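Re: the request from the purification team.
They wanted to know what the chain is likely to look like in 3D before they choose a buffer screen. I agreed to run a prediction and write the result into the notebook, where they can find it.
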Amino acid sequence: MTIQEAMIKAVAGGYHIHGSDGMDTDYAGATNDYSAWTRKDNASSFLVPMEETFLDPQFWQALGRTLGWSAGCDLVITCVQGVEEYQRGRGYYWMYQWHCFIQAIADGHTPEAFFAPLTASSTRSSGTKHWPKASKTRPCPSLLFLLVAETRQRAQHVCEAAAGAQEVAKEIVQRSRRARHRRRGMTCSMGERL
């Protein structure tokens, strides 16, 4: 299957985008780099980068409807590097295909290489794995695992920075209290002199 055929199948499965102002559009065709959409109000066309389309879950859901990828499944991402780690979730077969696509891109393959082995019969029940032929093993860690790890690391840095800011704030409050006590002490001693 080519990227153009995948777009046609996704459109047949209900994939649709609107103009930037919400205006309804018609699908006009695709290349490997862009899909073209024509506005219904003024017949002007605009291009959408295919990278944007490949990141859109609506595209994968619609393609999945056409190719019969609607069955539910368990999604597991496993990484063995020192200690085995994995993430598990419940999803649909179209999600599995989307994750396979992301992994194929992470492996350095082109979108064309991913879509090439897909056919209308590429369903979950066929048991076919849709990895490009050149990729016999999955790299470890997977792209999604790396994203999760990076997110955790950033969250940890944010928490550390917040804890540091909280300590600075406590110190400022303590200095302010000491200064207030000194001023009160000065005010009281001045009042006694009068």
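For the purification team: The first helix runs from residue 3 to 12.
Please add any questions underneath this entry.
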